Every structure is written in structure tokens, then in C-alpha cells.
Amino acid sequence: MSNFTYLYVLVSKSGDTYYEQTLVSAISLRHHMPEANIVLLVDDKTEATLIDNRAEIKKYVSSIKSIELPNSLTNVQKSRWLKTIMPELIDTDFLYIDSDTVITQPLTEIETIDVNLGAVLDKHSLLSQHCNRDLINKNVKRMGFHASVNDKHFNGGLLLVRHNDNNKKFFQTWHLLWQDSVKKGLSIDQVALAQTNYLFNGLIQELPGIWNCQVEYGVHLFTQAKILHMFVTGDLYNRRPHIFMDPQTFKDIEKKGITQNVMDIILNPMKGFKSKNQVIGGSAVDYFNTPLSRIWCLMYCKSSKTRFVFNKFNRIADILLTKIKQKKA
User: Fold this and answer.
1) Are 42 and 81 in contact (CB under 8 A)?
2) Domains of the chain and any CATH numbers
3) Burial status of residue 201 (CB atoms within 10 A of its CB: 0-12, 13-18, 19 or more)
4) Which of 13, 42, 129, 131 is placed for a possible disulfide with 289 were both Cys, Cβ 3.0 to 4.6 Å?
5) What angle do CA 265, 267, 273 make, to 5 degrees?
6) How far apart are CA 171 and CA 133, in angstroms?
7) CA distances from 10 to 13, 33, 145 (A)
8) How far apart are CA 124 and CA 299, in angstroms?
9) Sheet holding 101-103, edge to edge
10) What is the pLDDT of residues 87-109, one digit of tens each?
11) Nearest-10 Cα torsion for 99, 104, 107, 110
12) CA dist 159 → 48, 118, 155, 295 (Å)
């Protein structure tokens, strides 16, 4: 058995896109690392769905590890449950990789990098400059947690974890704090991750952004990125226009499997970016991450009914801007 594991966590049912996302990422990883030990960690209900078309992923992973979880948990909670107990289930050093990713080159270097527990900064930004710092601070205040250590708030989408007792204790604490968060209506795990890192005096070491290039914020890393993190899904607050392999792509995979067009994107990820793009920076990034901006975006993009409401407001805005320009003239 390999002494290093590449690990995915999958909780999925037919009709969502989590399986398809994981399949794409696993294919890209296997392409670049044919001999890698790739483990898929699932709950028992997900394992039962890995038949027929959904059995395709078995060709690309080395093994599947299934864990029985309480039926009372939602699928989101099941995925976080598995993620926060990973060292209890994997007996090697491992690299946890979120499903909504594409691997762009071999990752062998990560196996020997001198880091005990590693992650990349969330949004490639210090917390004090983070576009979502107000929301992060609101969530940690709600929990009585701390958001950062030395202004660093880490993204949980990629974690390098060495197999040792200290990391096991770290994850055990993370699991308990995440459970506390769930009891208070906060199912996300990153807030509890930040508090755990605080309690362990900043145990997480910063990895270069190329290991978890969060595509909306990592334009400067594209040419060197080893892993592209796409943020395919999200709730009302976090949903945004998809600039790379949008949800419809994954719906197509569900119906048609891995077509030649999809495989071409997997092997040449830059082809996955939309032709209609615009790079923004500075305060515009902060604006586009405000709740108001995202509501406008949802109204514009979601359906013809919401677009109609958007257009009503847009016409009012156009009239106001015209009057402002006339007064300045």
C-alpha cells in the first residue's frame, strides 16, 4: 500500500451534481498520477447509489471506504461529519481534495513538502482584506469563535494532513466544534476549522496558493496552479455566476457520461473557462461579494420571472442615472 493517500469525500444522491464533480476531479488526478493511491470516502447511503452509470468512478479510485452514519443527518452534515474525522479512517499521510476541483499537473511534490498540517488562505487573502470578512466575523461572533490566527483564515477545500497523534487531536476538536456549530444552525465547517486552528496555536501552515487555486480569486496563479477549485455549488448567499464548468456541464455528465468534449476540458482545463469573462479587482471585488449584489445577480440570472423584476429596478436606476448626469452637465 502507498504511504500517501489522495482523499475525496462524497455524499451524494441521484439528481445532485456532487458525484459528477468528484468523477471529473478523480479522472484528472488519475490522468496526471496513474499510480496514485486515491481513496473515496462515502457514507453507506451514497455507496448504495454507486451502480450503473454512477459506478464509473470505480475505474479511477483505488478503493472506496464506506461509513454508516445516522439517518438524522442531512447530506451536507454527513459530508462534514466524514471530513472532520478523516484521520480516524485513513492510516497514512493524505491530501484531502474538495470534489469541485480539477487537477492540472502531477501532485507528487506535496507528498514530501515539509508541512505537518497545511492549507491555502481562503480567497488567497488575509482576513483583514477578505471580501467576505464581515460575514466570517459575523459567524464566528455568533459561535464565540476566533476567525484567524495572525490574520490568516484558511480554506478547507484542500488539506495536507500528516499521520500523527497531534493531527488526530486537531480533527477530533474540529469535529466537536463543528457539531456545536450545527446545533446553532451553522452547518459549514470552516468556522469551526478556524477556531480549532486558534485553539491549537496556529497549527495549520500556509501552503502556496497553487495547491488550491480558487478560480474567482486566483487569476494570478492560473499559469502555475496545480489544482483549480471551481466553487460549483453554493447557497443563496454564496451562489455566483459560474466562470468554469458550470452546473449544466455536470448535469450533462449525469445524462451522457464523460463525453469527448468533457474529457477535453478535464485534460485541458483552460478550455473550461467561459468565453465571456471580465477580470475585476480592488473595491469592485468587495462590492460583487455583498448580499445585495448577489441578490441582483440571482434575479438577473435565475429565470425569466426574476429577470422581469430585475428589469423593473434596472429601468428605475437608468432614469435616476440619466437625471444625475443631466444635473452635472
Assistant:
1) no
2) 4-272 (3.90.550.10), 290-328 (no CATH)
3) exposed
4) 131
5) 35
6) 24
7) 10, 20, 28
8) 28
9) 101-103, 227-229, 213-214
10) 999 999 999 999 999 999 999 99
11) -80
12) 27, 6, 9, 32
Write the pLDDT tens digit of every residue in 189-246: 999 999 999 999 999 999 999 999 998 889 899 999 999 998 765 443 444 556 777 7
Q: Cα torsion at 138, 228, 43, 167 (round to 10°)?
A: -70
What distance in Å separates the CA atoms of residue 81 and residue 189, rounded to the nearest whole number? Answer: 9
Distance between CA atoms of residues 42 and 78, nearest Å: 9
**What cell does 160 get?**
495536507
pTM reported for the whole predicted model: 0.90
Residue corresponding to grid cell 450545527 = 182
3-state secondary structure of 39: strand
Q: 89: closest CA among 64, 108, 110?
A: 64
